[in-house]
Amino acid sequence: MNPEPTAQKQFEALPISRMAKLSGWAMYRSAETYVWRPQSADEVRETLEIAKDSGRSVIARGSGYSYGDTALNGENITVDLTRMNKILQWDPQTGVIQIEPGATIYNLWRHTLPDGWWPTVVPGAMSPTIGGCAAVNAHGKNSWLKGTFGDAILSFDLLLANGDMQTVTRESDPELFHAAIGGLGLLGVMTSVTLQTRKVPAGYLLTRHYHAQNLDELFDVFEQRLAAQDEYLVGWIDGFAAGASLGRGLIEAANHPEMEDVSTLNPATQDLSPNIAGVFPRSQMWRIMNPLFHDAPMRLANNAQYTMVAKYGAKMKKTPMAQFHFFHDYIPNWKKAFAPGGLRQFQMFAPAESAKILFRAALQATHDAHIPPYLCVFKRHKTDPFLLRYQSDGYSLSLDFRVTRSRDIPLQKLLEQLRVLVLENGGNLYMAKDDFLDAASFEQSVGADRAAEFRAIKDKLDPAWLFQSNLSRRIMPQPLGEVILA
Ligand SMILES: Cc1cc2nc3c(=O)[nH]c(=O)nc-3n(C[C@H](O)[C@H](O)[C@H](O)COP(=O)(O)OP(=O)(O)OC[C@H]3O[C@@H](n4cnc5c(N)ncnc54)[C@H](O)[C@@H]3O)c2cc1C
User: Fold this and answer.
1) What's the pLDDT at 471?
2) Mind listing the pLDDT tens digit for each residue in 339-397?
Protein backbone atom coordinates (compact mmCIF):
# COMPACT_ATOMS: atom_id res chain seq x y z
CA MET A 1 0.00 0.00 0.00
CA ASN A 2 1.53 3.35 -0.99
CA PRO A 3 1.62 5.92 1.77
CA GLU A 4 -0.18 9.17 1.04
CA PRO A 5 1.29 12.51 2.02
CA THR A 6 -1.13 14.16 4.33
CA ALA A 7 -0.50 17.71 5.45
CA GLN A 8 -0.86 20.77 3.23
CA LYS A 9 2.90 20.89 2.62
CA GLN A 10 5.50 19.67 0.18
CA PHE A 11 6.78 16.18 0.93
CA GLU A 12 10.23 17.06 2.29
CA ALA A 13 13.30 14.94 2.88
CA LEU A 14 14.01 13.72 6.39
CA PRO A 15 17.40 12.56 7.73
CA ILE A 16 18.20 9.15 6.28
CA SER A 17 19.74 8.24 9.67
CA ARG A 18 16.16 8.15 11.00
CA MET A 19 15.10 5.51 8.48
CA ALA A 20 14.59 1.99 9.84
CA LYS A 21 12.79 -1.13 8.75
CA LEU A 22 10.16 -2.11 11.31
CA SER A 23 7.93 -5.18 11.33
CA GLY A 24 4.71 -6.23 12.91
CA TRP A 25 5.31 -8.83 15.59
CA ALA A 26 4.33 -11.69 13.27
CA MET A 27 7.11 -10.69 10.82
CA TYR A 28 4.69 -10.81 7.88
CA ARG A 29 4.24 -7.04 7.42
CA SER A 30 7.10 -4.55 7.52
CA ALA A 31 7.81 -1.01 6.40
CA GLU A 32 10.67 1.48 6.00
CA THR A 33 9.82 4.40 8.25
CA TYR A 34 11.45 7.42 9.91
CA VAL A 35 11.74 6.73 13.62
CA TRP A 36 11.82 9.27 16.46
CA ARG A 37 12.26 8.11 20.05
CA PRO A 38 11.08 10.94 22.31
CA GLN A 39 11.66 10.97 26.05
CA SER A 40 8.94 13.46 27.01
CA ALA A 41 5.60 14.82 25.87
CA ASP A 42 7.39 17.97 24.64
CA GLU A 43 9.63 15.83 22.44
CA VAL A 44 6.57 14.04 21.04
CA ARG A 45 5.08 17.46 20.25
CA GLU A 46 8.32 18.47 18.47
CA THR A 47 8.06 15.30 16.38
CA LEU A 48 4.52 16.24 15.34
CA GLU A 49 5.89 19.58 14.15
CA ILE A 50 8.62 17.84 12.15
CA ALA A 51 5.94 15.70 10.54
CA LYS A 52 3.80 18.70 9.65
CA ASP A 53 6.79 20.62 8.26
CA SER A 54 7.79 17.70 6.08
CA GLY A 55 4.28 16.78 4.91
CA ARG A 56 4.39 13.36 6.58
CA SER A 57 1.96 11.48 8.76
CA VAL A 58 2.76 10.10 12.22
CA ILE A 59 1.88 6.96 14.13
CA ALA A 60 2.73 6.06 17.72
CA ARG A 61 4.42 2.75 18.39
CA GLY A 62 4.89 0.82 21.61
CA SER A 63 6.70 -2.52 21.61
CA GLY A 64 5.51 -3.46 18.12
CA TYR A 65 3.62 -6.48 19.51
CA SER A 66 0.65 -6.02 17.21
CA TYR A 67 0.79 -8.80 14.69
CA GLY A 68 0.23 -6.74 11.55
CA ASP A 69 0.61 -3.10 10.55
CA THR A 70 -1.17 -1.01 13.21
CA ALA A 71 2.16 0.44 14.32
CA LEU A 72 3.80 0.69 10.87
CA ASN A 73 3.91 3.91 8.87
CA GLY A 74 5.82 3.34 5.63
CA GLU A 75 7.82 6.37 4.36
CA ASN A 76 6.27 8.44 7.12
CA ILE A 77 7.08 9.00 10.80
CA THR A 78 6.88 6.51 13.66
CA VAL A 79 7.06 7.77 17.23
CA ASP A 80 8.58 4.97 19.26
CA LEU A 81 7.45 5.61 22.83
CA THR A 82 9.47 2.97 24.63
CA ARG A 83 11.79 5.56 26.21
CA MET A 84 8.79 7.11 27.95
CA ASN A 85 8.47 4.31 30.46
CA LYS A 86 8.37 5.87 33.92
CA ILE A 87 5.92 5.21 36.72
CA LEU A 88 4.64 8.72 37.47
CA GLN A 89 2.51 8.07 40.57
CA TRP A 90 1.58 4.99 42.56
CA ASP A 91 -0.89 4.75 45.41
CA PRO A 92 -0.62 1.37 47.15
CA GLN A 93 -3.75 2.17 49.19
CA THR A 94 -6.07 2.52 46.19
CA GLY A 95 -4.18 0.62 43.49
CA VAL A 96 -4.29 3.63 41.16
CA ILE A 97 -1.21 4.13 39.03
CA GLN A 98 -0.22 6.85 36.59
CA ILE A 99 2.29 5.57 34.11
CA GLU A 100 4.02 6.67 30.92
CA PRO A 101 2.76 4.97 27.76
CA GLY A 102 6.00 3.20 26.85
CA ALA A 103 6.14 1.28 30.13
CA THR A 104 5.31 -2.36 29.56
CA ILE A 105 2.87 -4.68 31.24
CA TYR A 106 5.99 -6.24 32.82
CA ASN A 107 7.07 -2.86 34.26
CA LEU A 108 3.55 -2.40 35.59
CA TRP A 109 3.06 -5.63 37.49
CA ARG A 110 6.65 -5.68 38.81
CA HIS A 111 5.87 -2.32 40.40
CA THR A 112 2.46 -3.12 41.87
CA LEU A 113 2.73 -6.78 42.91
CA PRO A 114 4.83 -6.23 46.07
CA ASP A 115 1.93 -4.09 47.39
CA GLY A 116 -0.63 -6.76 46.49
CA TRP A 117 -1.99 -5.31 43.24
CA TRP A 118 -2.06 -6.67 39.70
CA PRO A 119 -3.24 -5.13 36.37
CA THR A 120 -6.99 -5.68 36.03
CA VAL A 121 -6.70 -6.98 32.45
CA VAL A 122 -3.53 -8.17 30.70
CA PRO A 123 -2.87 -9.60 27.23
CA GLY A 124 -1.07 -12.90 26.72
CA ALA A 125 2.44 -11.42 26.63
CA MET A 126 4.10 -8.98 29.02
CA SER A 127 6.12 -6.88 26.59
CA PRO A 128 3.24 -4.82 25.14
CA THR A 129 3.21 -1.25 26.40
CA ILE A 130 0.46 0.52 28.31
CA GLY A 131 -0.11 2.89 25.37
CA GLY A 132 -0.28 -0.01 22.93
CA CYS A 133 -2.76 -1.93 25.09
CA ALA A 134 -4.93 1.18 25.51
CA ALA A 135 -4.86 2.02 21.79
CA VAL A 136 -6.02 -1.47 20.74
CA ASN A 137 -8.13 -1.98 23.89
CA ALA A 138 -6.54 -5.34 24.64
CA HIS A 139 -8.43 -8.17 26.31
CA GLY A 140 -7.33 -10.88 28.73
CA LYS A 141 -8.46 -14.23 30.00
CA ASN A 142 -10.92 -12.55 32.37
CA SER A 143 -12.44 -10.14 29.84
CA TRP A 144 -15.77 -11.97 30.07
CA LEU A 145 -15.94 -10.70 33.67
CA LYS A 146 -13.73 -7.61 33.97
CA GLY A 147 -14.04 -6.20 30.46
CA THR A 148 -11.11 -4.93 28.46
CA PHE A 149 -7.93 -3.00 29.23
CA GLY A 150 -9.86 0.21 28.57
CA ASP A 151 -12.36 -0.56 31.30
CA ALA A 152 -9.56 -0.24 33.87
CA ILE A 153 -8.38 3.13 32.51
CA LEU A 154 -9.38 6.11 34.65
CA SER A 155 -7.84 8.83 32.51
CA PHE A 156 -5.15 9.56 29.93
CA ASP A 157 -3.29 12.56 28.58
CA LEU A 158 -3.75 12.78 24.83
CA LEU A 159 -1.51 14.92 22.65
CA LEU A 160 -3.67 16.09 19.77
CA ALA A 161 -2.68 16.90 16.19
CA ASN A 162 -2.74 20.64 16.91
CA GLY A 163 -0.22 20.20 19.72
CA ASP A 164 -2.74 20.64 22.55
CA MET A 165 -2.61 18.25 25.48
CA GLN A 166 -5.95 17.08 26.80
CA THR A 167 -6.56 15.07 29.97
CA VAL A 168 -9.46 12.78 29.14
CA THR A 169 -11.69 10.94 31.59
CA ARG A 170 -15.03 9.15 31.17
CA GLU A 171 -16.68 12.15 32.76
CA SER A 172 -14.78 15.04 31.13
CA ASP A 173 -15.17 13.86 27.54
CA PRO A 174 -17.00 10.54 27.22
CA GLU A 175 -16.95 10.67 23.42
CA LEU A 176 -13.18 11.08 23.15
CA PHE A 177 -12.55 8.68 26.02
CA HIS A 178 -14.45 5.90 24.25
CA ALA A 179 -12.98 6.71 20.83
CA ALA A 180 -9.29 7.06 21.71
CA ILE A 181 -9.26 3.82 23.72
CA GLY A 182 -9.27 1.25 20.93
CA GLY A 183 -8.67 4.13 18.48
CA LEU A 184 -5.48 2.56 17.07
CA GLY A 185 -3.39 5.68 17.67
CA LEU A 186 -5.38 7.61 15.06
CA LEU A 187 -6.68 10.41 17.29
CA GLY A 188 -3.49 11.40 19.10
CA VAL A 189 -0.59 10.17 21.20
CA MET A 190 -1.26 9.11 24.78
CA THR A 191 1.56 10.48 26.90
CA SER A 192 0.39 9.12 30.24
CA VAL A 193 -2.30 6.70 31.37
CA THR A 194 -3.93 6.34 34.80
CA LEU A 195 -5.14 2.85 35.60
CA GLN A 196 -7.03 1.08 38.33
CA THR A 197 -5.25 -2.15 39.25
CA ARG A 198 -6.91 -4.94 41.25
CA LYS A 199 -6.13 -6.25 44.71
CA VAL A 200 -4.71 -9.77 44.81
CA PRO A 201 -4.20 -11.88 47.93
CA ALA A 202 -1.18 -13.79 46.60
CA GLY A 203 1.21 -13.98 43.70
CA TYR A 204 -0.27 -17.21 42.42
CA LEU A 205 -3.54 -18.49 40.99
CA LEU A 206 -5.23 -21.79 41.66
CA THR A 207 -5.40 -23.35 38.22
CA ARG A 208 -7.04 -26.46 36.89
CA HIS A 209 -7.26 -28.08 33.45
CA TYR A 210 -10.32 -29.66 31.86
CA HIS A 211 -10.46 -31.41 28.55
CA ALA A 212 -13.09 -31.65 25.84
CA GLN A 213 -13.24 -34.30 23.14
CA ASN A 214 -14.79 -32.06 20.52
CA LEU A 215 -16.11 -28.57 19.92
CA ASP A 216 -19.53 -29.20 21.49
CA GLU A 217 -17.86 -30.37 24.68
CA LEU A 218 -15.48 -27.44 24.63
CA PHE A 219 -18.38 -25.00 24.65
CA ASP A 220 -20.16 -27.06 27.32
CA VAL A 221 -17.14 -27.07 29.64
CA PHE A 222 -16.65 -23.34 29.11
CA GLU A 223 -20.27 -22.65 29.96
CA GLN A 224 -19.98 -24.80 33.10
CA ARG A 225 -16.86 -22.98 34.22
CA LEU A 226 -18.49 -19.62 33.52
CA ALA A 227 -21.46 -20.67 35.63
CA ALA A 228 -19.00 -21.63 38.38
CA GLN A 229 -17.61 -18.05 38.08
CA ASP A 230 -14.03 -19.10 37.39
CA GLU A 231 -12.41 -15.72 36.89
CA TYR A 232 -9.82 -16.59 34.27
CA LEU A 233 -10.63 -18.97 31.45
CA VAL A 234 -8.73 -19.88 28.33
CA GLY A 235 -9.14 -22.73 25.91
CA TRP A 236 -6.66 -24.32 23.58
CA ILE A 237 -7.79 -26.33 20.56
CA ASP A 238 -5.84 -29.02 18.74
CA GLY A 239 -6.04 -27.56 15.22
CA PHE A 240 -5.10 -30.90 13.67
CA ALA A 241 -7.99 -32.87 15.15
CA ALA A 242 -10.64 -33.60 12.52
CA GLY A 243 -13.92 -35.46 12.06
CA ALA A 244 -15.59 -36.43 15.33
CA SER A 245 -12.69 -34.85 17.24
CA LEU A 246 -12.88 -31.50 15.50
CA GLY A 247 -12.42 -28.79 18.09
CA ARG A 248 -11.09 -31.05 20.82
CA GLY A 249 -9.07 -29.17 23.35
CA LEU A 250 -8.15 -28.13 26.83
CA ILE A 251 -9.57 -25.49 29.09
CA GLU A 252 -7.54 -23.84 31.82
CA ALA A 253 -9.48 -22.19 34.60
CA ALA A 254 -7.88 -20.04 37.29
CA ASN A 255 -8.93 -18.19 40.40
CA HIS A 256 -7.27 -16.12 43.06
CA PRO A 257 -6.92 -17.99 46.37
CA GLU A 258 -9.14 -16.89 49.22
CA MET A 259 -6.36 -16.74 51.79
CA GLU A 260 -3.67 -14.09 51.74
CA ASP A 261 -0.14 -15.29 51.12
CA VAL A 262 2.00 -12.17 51.12
CA SER A 263 5.25 -14.11 50.90
CA THR A 264 4.35 -14.89 47.28
CA LEU A 265 3.94 -11.22 46.31
CA ASN A 266 7.67 -10.94 45.71
CA PRO A 267 8.08 -10.51 41.92
CA ALA A 268 10.96 -13.01 42.00
CA THR A 269 8.38 -15.77 42.67
CA GLN A 270 7.07 -15.18 39.14
CA ASP A 271 10.33 -15.74 37.31
CA LEU A 272 10.95 -18.76 35.14
CA SER A 273 14.24 -20.58 35.41
CA PRO A 274 16.56 -19.58 32.55
CA ASN A 275 16.88 -23.23 31.55
CA ILE A 276 14.17 -25.72 30.63
CA ALA A 277 14.53 -29.05 32.47
CA GLY A 278 17.70 -27.51 33.92
CA VAL A 279 19.51 -27.98 30.61
CA PHE A 280 18.17 -26.14 27.57
CA PRO A 281 18.64 -22.36 27.67
CA ARG A 282 15.13 -20.95 27.38
CA SER A 283 16.40 -18.07 25.22
CA GLN A 284 17.66 -20.53 22.62
CA MET A 285 14.62 -22.83 22.49
CA TRP A 286 13.24 -21.19 19.36
CA ARG A 287 16.29 -22.51 17.48
CA ILE A 288 15.33 -26.06 18.45
CA MET A 289 11.68 -25.38 17.62
CA ASN A 290 12.30 -23.76 14.23
CA PRO A 291 13.05 -26.96 12.25
CA LEU A 292 10.08 -28.63 13.97
CA PHE A 293 7.57 -26.00 12.89
CA HIS A 294 6.13 -28.09 10.05
CA ASP A 295 2.83 -29.92 9.82
CA ALA A 296 3.93 -33.44 10.83
CA PRO A 297 5.86 -32.53 14.00
CA MET A 298 3.21 -29.97 14.97
CA ARG A 299 0.49 -32.60 14.59
CA LEU A 300 2.44 -34.83 17.00
CA ALA A 301 3.06 -31.95 19.41
CA ASN A 302 -0.64 -30.96 19.47
CA ASN A 303 -1.65 -34.58 19.97
CA ALA A 304 0.88 -35.06 22.77
CA GLN A 305 -0.23 -31.86 24.50
CA TYR A 306 -3.88 -32.88 24.40
CA THR A 307 -3.24 -36.46 25.50
CA MET A 308 -0.87 -35.56 28.34
CA VAL A 309 -3.06 -32.88 29.85
CA ALA A 310 -6.30 -34.84 29.32
CA LYS A 311 -4.72 -37.75 31.18
CA TYR A 312 -2.72 -36.10 33.95
CA GLY A 313 -3.62 -32.42 34.07
CA ALA A 314 -6.86 -32.31 36.06
CA LYS A 315 -5.29 -31.61 39.48
CA MET A 316 -5.59 -28.16 40.98
CA LYS A 317 -2.21 -26.46 41.28
CA LYS A 318 -0.68 -23.17 42.28
CA THR A 319 0.60 -21.29 39.26
CA PRO A 320 2.53 -18.00 39.56
CA MET A 321 0.34 -15.30 38.01
CA ALA A 322 2.89 -14.21 35.41
CA GLN A 323 3.29 -17.80 34.26
CA PHE A 324 -0.44 -18.24 33.88
CA HIS A 325 -1.10 -14.97 32.07
CA PHE A 326 1.91 -14.79 29.80
CA PHE A 327 2.31 -18.32 28.56
CA HIS A 328 3.55 -16.88 25.25
CA ASP A 329 6.64 -15.72 27.14
CA TYR A 330 7.67 -19.23 28.18
CA ILE A 331 9.88 -19.36 25.12
CA PRO A 332 11.50 -15.96 24.51
CA ASN A 333 11.27 -14.95 20.85
CA TRP A 334 9.15 -18.00 20.04
CA LYS A 335 7.92 -16.26 16.90
CA LYS A 336 11.34 -16.97 15.41
CA ALA A 337 10.30 -20.60 15.29
CA PHE A 338 8.10 -19.42 12.40
CA ALA A 339 11.04 -17.84 10.52
CA PRO A 340 11.77 -17.10 7.77
CA GLY A 341 8.20 -16.52 6.50
CA GLY A 342 6.66 -15.52 9.82
CA LEU A 343 3.09 -16.25 10.86
CA ARG A 344 -0.36 -14.82 10.35
CA GLN A 345 -2.93 -14.90 13.08
CA PHE A 346 -6.63 -14.78 12.40
CA GLN A 347 -8.65 -13.95 15.51
CA MET A 348 -12.41 -14.01 15.09
CA PHE A 349 -14.97 -12.80 17.62
CA ALA A 350 -18.52 -14.09 17.45
CA PRO A 351 -21.72 -13.51 19.40
CA ALA A 352 -22.52 -16.43 21.71
CA GLU A 353 -25.42 -17.60 19.55
CA SER A 354 -23.36 -18.00 16.34
CA ALA A 355 -19.92 -18.80 17.78
CA LYS A 356 -20.20 -22.58 17.62
CA ILE A 357 -21.42 -22.64 14.03
CA LEU A 358 -18.75 -20.16 12.97
CA PHE A 359 -15.84 -21.86 14.74
CA ARG A 360 -16.84 -25.28 13.41
CA ALA A 361 -17.00 -23.92 9.88
CA ALA A 362 -13.69 -22.08 10.32
CA LEU A 363 -11.86 -25.15 11.67
CA GLN A 364 -13.34 -27.25 8.87
CA ALA A 365 -12.18 -24.68 6.29
CA THR A 366 -8.59 -25.03 7.54
CA HIS A 367 -8.83 -28.81 7.04
CA ASP A 368 -10.35 -28.44 3.58
CA ALA A 369 -7.53 -26.06 2.62
CA HIS A 370 -4.90 -28.41 4.14
CA ILE A 371 -3.48 -25.50 6.10
CA PRO A 372 -3.55 -26.44 9.78
CA PRO A 373 -3.27 -23.75 12.44
CA TYR A 374 -0.39 -24.59 14.76
CA LEU A 375 -1.90 -22.78 17.72
CA CYS A 376 -5.62 -22.11 18.38
CA VAL A 377 -6.79 -20.16 21.41
CA PHE A 378 -10.37 -19.84 22.61
CA LYS A 379 -11.77 -17.17 25.00
CA ARG A 380 -15.02 -15.71 26.32
CA HIS A 381 -15.82 -11.99 26.11
CA LYS A 382 -18.46 -9.44 26.92
CA THR A 383 -19.51 -6.39 24.94
CA ASP A 384 -17.32 -3.39 25.67
CA PRO A 385 -18.39 0.26 25.60
CA PHE A 386 -15.71 1.59 23.23
CA LEU A 387 -16.41 3.05 19.79
CA LEU A 388 -14.25 0.76 17.66
CA ARG A 389 -15.13 -2.28 19.71
CA TYR A 390 -14.38 -5.72 18.41
CA GLN A 391 -15.83 -7.76 21.26
CA SER A 392 -19.40 -8.76 21.73
CA ASP A 393 -21.07 -11.00 24.28
CA GLY A 394 -19.61 -14.20 22.94
CA TYR A 395 -16.42 -16.08 22.12
CA SER A 396 -13.19 -15.62 20.20
CA LEU A 397 -10.99 -18.10 18.42
CA SER A 398 -7.51 -17.27 17.19
CA LEU A 399 -5.68 -19.38 14.64
CA ASP A 400 -1.91 -19.09 14.03
CA PHE A 401 -0.71 -20.14 10.59
CA ARG A 402 2.84 -20.57 9.45
CA VAL A 403 3.67 -18.65 6.28
CA THR A 404 5.78 -20.44 3.71
CA ARG A 405 6.55 -19.56 0.12
CA SER A 406 4.32 -22.31 -1.27
CA ARG A 407 1.52 -21.57 1.20
CA ASP A 408 1.42 -17.83 0.86
CA ILE A 409 -1.33 -17.62 -1.78
CA PRO A 410 -3.49 -20.54 -0.55
CA LEU A 411 -3.26 -19.07 2.95
CA GLN A 412 -4.41 -15.68 1.72
CA LYS A 413 -7.39 -17.40 0.05
CA LEU A 414 -8.19 -19.25 3.27
CA LEU A 415 -8.02 -16.05 5.32
CA GLU A 416 -10.36 -14.34 2.88
CA GLN A 417 -12.77 -17.25 3.16
CA LEU A 418 -12.59 -17.01 6.96
CA ARG A 419 -13.18 -13.26 6.82
CA VAL A 420 -16.39 -13.81 4.82
CA LEU A 421 -17.52 -16.50 7.27
CA VAL A 422 -16.96 -14.23 10.26
CA LEU A 423 -18.75 -11.25 8.78
CA GLU A 424 -21.67 -13.37 7.55
CA ASN A 425 -22.10 -14.74 11.06
CA GLY A 426 -22.22 -11.33 12.68
CA GLY A 427 -18.67 -11.60 14.00
CA ASN A 428 -15.84 -9.10 14.34
CA LEU A 429 -12.12 -8.96 13.71
CA TYR A 430 -9.44 -7.47 15.92
CA MET A 431 -7.11 -4.90 14.38
CA ALA A 432 -4.17 -5.76 16.66
CA LYS A 433 -4.05 -9.14 14.93
CA ASP A 434 -5.21 -8.20 11.45
CA ASP A 435 -3.06 -7.63 8.39
CA PHE A 436 -5.42 -7.73 5.42
CA LEU A 437 -8.90 -6.30 6.05
CA ASP A 438 -10.03 -3.57 3.63
CA ALA A 439 -12.23 -0.55 4.27
CA ALA A 440 -15.49 -2.30 3.34
CA SER A 441 -14.89 -5.32 5.55
CA PHE A 442 -13.64 -3.14 8.41
CA GLU A 443 -16.89 -1.19 8.24
CA GLN A 444 -18.86 -4.39 8.22
CA SER A 445 -16.89 -5.68 11.21
CA VAL A 446 -17.14 -2.58 13.39
CA GLY A 447 -20.46 -1.33 12.00
CA ALA A 448 -20.92 1.45 9.43
CA ASP A 449 -22.36 3.87 12.02
CA ARG A 450 -19.45 3.40 14.37
CA ALA A 451 -16.89 3.74 11.59
CA ALA A 452 -18.58 6.97 10.43
CA GLU A 453 -18.71 8.31 13.99
CA PHE A 454 -15.00 7.61 14.44
CA ARG A 455 -14.20 9.38 11.17
CA ALA A 456 -16.24 12.39 12.26
CA ILE A 457 -14.27 12.62 15.53
CA LYS A 458 -11.04 12.25 13.60
CA ASP A 459 -12.02 14.95 11.09
CA LYS A 460 -12.74 17.30 13.99
CA LEU A 461 -9.55 16.62 15.98
CA ASP A 462 -7.18 15.86 13.16
CA PRO A 463 -8.51 17.60 10.03
CA ALA A 464 -5.29 17.06 8.04
CA TRP A 465 -5.17 13.39 9.06
CA LEU A 466 -1.76 13.78 10.66
CA PHE A 467 -2.14 10.44 12.45
CA GLN A 468 -2.08 7.57 10.00
CA SER A 469 -0.59 4.11 9.73
CA ASN A 470 -0.32 1.42 7.09
CA LEU A 471 -3.36 -0.13 8.79
CA SER A 472 -5.40 3.07 8.66
CA ARG A 473 -4.66 3.55 4.97
CA ARG A 474 -6.17 0.09 4.37
CA ILE A 475 -9.21 0.20 6.62
CA MET A 476 -9.95 3.89 6.86
CA PRO A 477 -8.43 5.76 3.93
CA GLN A 478 -8.29 9.55 4.08
CA PRO A 479 -11.10 11.05 1.98
CA LEU A 480 -9.60 11.54 -1.48
CA GLY A 481 -10.69 15.15 -1.90
CA GLU A 482 -8.56 16.18 1.06
CA VAL A 483 -5.26 14.66 -0.02
CA ILE A 484 -2.90 17.35 -1.25
CA LEU A 485 -0.23 15.64 -3.30
CA ALA A 486 3.29 17.04 -3.16
C1 LIG B 1 2.41 -13.21 21.83
C2 LIG B 1 1.32 -12.18 21.85
C3 LIG B 1 0.20 -12.38 22.65
C4 LIG B 1 -0.83 -11.44 22.65
N5 LIG B 1 -1.93 -11.67 23.42
C6 LIG B 1 -2.96 -10.79 23.39
C7 LIG B 1 -4.12 -11.01 24.17
O8 LIG B 1 -4.23 -12.00 24.88
N9 LIG B 1 -5.10 -10.08 24.12
C10 LIG B 1 -5.00 -8.96 23.34
O11 LIG B 1 -5.92 -8.14 23.33
N12 LIG B 1 -3.90 -8.73 22.59
C13 LIG B 1 -2.89 -9.61 22.60
N14 LIG B 1 -1.78 -9.37 21.85
C15 LIG B 1 -1.72 -8.14 21.08
C16 LIG B 1 -1.09 -7.00 21.88
O17 LIG B 1 -1.60 -6.95 23.18
C18 LIG B 1 -1.47 -5.69 21.21
O19 LIG B 1 -1.08 -5.72 19.88
C20 LIG B 1 -0.84 -4.46 21.87
O21 LIG B 1 -1.29 -3.31 21.21
C22 LIG B 1 0.65 -4.47 21.75
O23 LIG B 1 1.18 -3.37 22.45
P24 LIG B 1 2.44 -2.63 21.85
O25 LIG B 1 3.00 -1.75 22.89
O26 LIG B 1 3.36 -3.60 21.25
O27 LIG B 1 1.75 -1.74 20.73
P28 LIG B 1 2.13 -1.59 19.19
O29 LIG B 1 1.95 -2.87 18.51
O30 LIG B 1 3.46 -0.95 19.07
O31 LIG B 1 1.00 -0.56 18.74
C32 LIG B 1 -0.34 -0.99 18.72
C33 LIG B 1 -1.25 0.19 18.46
O34 LIG B 1 -1.18 1.08 19.55
C35 LIG B 1 -0.91 2.41 19.09
N36 LIG B 1 -0.16 3.06 20.16
C37 LIG B 1 0.94 2.60 20.81
N38 LIG B 1 1.30 3.45 21.75
C39 LIG B 1 0.43 4.49 21.71
C40 LIG B 1 0.29 5.70 22.44
N41 LIG B 1 1.12 6.03 23.43
N42 LIG B 1 -0.71 6.54 22.10
C43 LIG B 1 -1.58 6.24 21.11
N44 LIG B 1 -1.49 5.10 20.39
C45 LIG B 1 -0.50 4.24 20.70
C46 LIG B 1 -0.15 2.21 17.82
O47 LIG B 1 -0.26 3.35 16.98
C48 LIG B 1 -0.87 1.01 17.23
O49 LIG B 1 -2.04 1.43 16.59
C50 LIG B 1 -0.73 -10.27 21.84
C51 LIG B 1 0.40 -10.07 21.06
C52 LIG B 1 1.41 -11.02 21.06
C53 LIG B 1 2.60 -10.79 20.18
Assistant:
1) 98
2) 999 999 999 999 999 999 999 999 999 999 999 999 999 999 999 999 999 999 999 99
Short-list 421, 415, 246, 424, CA closest to 346:
415
The region, left, alpha or beta by phi > 0 then psi within -120 to 50, assigned to residue 247 is left
The CATH code belonging to domain 87-199 is 3.30.465.10
What is the 66 CA–ligand 1 centroid distance (Å)?
Answer: 5
Q: Which among 43, 61, 122 is the best mutation to test ligand 1's pocket, defined by most ligand atoms within 8 Å of the CB?
A: 61
Topology of the domain covering 204-436: Alpha-Beta Plaits (3.30.70)
Residue-range domain boundaries for the chain = 16-81+444-482, 87-199, 204-436
- Report which ligand 1 atom has the smallest distance to the Cα of 184: 49
DSSP sequence for 167-220: EEETTT-HHHHHHHTTSTT-S-EEEEEEEEEEE-SBSEEEEEEEEESSHHHHHH
Closest ligand 1 atom, residue 101 Cα: 41
CATH code: domain 16-81+444-482 is 3.30.43.10
Residue 108's pLDDT is what? Answer: 98
Question: Is 204-436 the same fold as 87-199?
Answer: no
